[in-house]
Design goal:
The protein has about 600 residues and is of the alpha+beta class. Helix content is about 40%, strand content about 10%. The chain is built from 17 helices and 24 strands. Helix 7 packs antiparallel against helix 8 and helix 12 crosses helix 13. InterPro entries: 6hp_glycosidase-like_sf (IPR012341), EDEM1/2/3 (IPR044674), Glyco_hydro_47 (IPR001382), Seven-hairpin_glycosidases (IPR036026). Its cofactor is Ca(2+). Pfam families: Glyco_hydro_47.
Length: about 600
Amino acid sequence: MPSRRSGTPAFVLLLLVISLSFCTSSSELDSRWAAKKLEMRDKVREMFYHAYENYMTYAFPHDELKPLTKSYTDSLSELGNLKLEHLPTDYSGSALTLIESLSSLVIMGNNTEFERAVGWLSKNLSFDVDARVNLFECNIRVLGGLVSAHILASDSKNRLIQGSYDNELLGLAEDLGRRFLPAFDTPTGLPYAWVNLKYGVMEGETTETSTSGCGSLILEMGALSRLTGDPRYEFAALRALRKLWSMRSSLNLFGTTLDVMTGEWIEHSSGIGAGVDSFYEYLVKAHILFGKDDYWRMFQSAYLAVQKYFRHGSWYHEADMRSGRATYWQLTSLQAFWPGLQAKVSDCNIINQVLVGDVRAANSSHREFFSVWEKYGVLPERYLLDYQTVHPTEKYYPLRPELAESTFYLYHATKDPFYIEVGEAIVNSLNFYTKVEGGFASIRDVTTMQREDHQHSFFLAETCKYLYLLFDDSFLAGRNYVFTTEGHPLPVLSDWHDRLPEAYIPSNWTYVKSRMPTERASAMSLQVCPATSLNLGEGQQPIESVCHVVDARGDHRCLRDEECGVDATSCRSRSCSIAGYCGLWLLV
């Protein structure tokens, strides 16, 4: 029998073998995922160029491609289903898809094509046309695309343009911004939804607009003011946003449509989807881009109201802004941006912070959206939650990017390879159902997969971009960008901030994380991530979501309501019962 000191115990050897095997398997697994990401990146690049090259062949310089007939549509002033009025005989389109593709070309490393496109736009694009355009869509697509591309073109570090660039894109953006200003000339400061680029607001123009239409202008117009030194653009957008905020209900909820002349709500029911979605998105992004704490305070109040009144399990329904009572139990494809907002990451080596940080809630909702995608192969425009079926008249899928966007943000917040698998499934579905010889076609009916002859510009601006960044985020390395609702990157610059929030100053990040509040507070109110905030002592409760405020005592005993916190899931305030325990005793 060997001496105990003469050899290593068998169980230690076994643990060593298991440990080595685990390390090898883990390394091999990482290698396989890396290979998968490269493979999928190349597939997305092929998708983008298939769409882009067909546009350039069959539709340029018009606005968008009709891939089935290999023709074009001038849709800049058709956005919102209204057509171009008084079409000039020499009008050849605004090259909308080209403008929307500029930052995607840079992200995919095609500096040569980017330079060529900038040169063409600088010489040929003009907004001096008798065209009635949708202010919101023209702002996020054209103004945002031009401002973003100007910043990329003028960045000396990138050296994207080898020849001379004399701020031509900024000049075009400023010209367009000036043509927007007449829309804001209302008693309320809320802008008209439609404006004529040549003549301003026309007589008899509709006074109805959406919450998104007047509350989602601050990023593009604010950036334009910072770049030009002309404060009129940011002032107009901010005045409209503040007026809209003053119209919220006592529950901190908003309606969907309103009258810009009277400031009265027209549609009181709303959710987080069409007509409202980007309003919430721009509150938090404006805080990051411009450093105003007002934006964060507005977002915090609005976000908690959404979680309290719209959320039902993993889904979000619509509700009446006055009472909070549910109105429509339906999912819309535009809602799929919400998980990305909850888990949005400022994706760079400098900051690397989850902005909202409600990753658990985001993951839960994302999986429900993806389950509907898997059910049909794509995401229908509207899905009836109470009947678990597609809406009878809104069965279409126009190549929307929102699910891909949320998948990108959730992967970078969690590094969970599940999201790589989701991205792969999205890519495969798009190639299988929507790719045609002339580009990528929208789906008219998700139950039959009948195609529609339209390739929207946002397919190149957003869908392909977010899928590409999911698999290859090298463009973001060492940079800090905020992506607009149309996917155009704007840099976070300290000289754009009135006061850079402490939570976004790298040197202060450790201080913010370690700071203990004098009063019990949520991660959101402290502007830090729930995973890294409030390093609680032994026996204390963990912070489970951005709105979660722990009870004063670990055993949940209490003498008064002030000793109770906020529920992590519903974001509702807990109260003290007669028996002396904190809980959700009050029905809302």
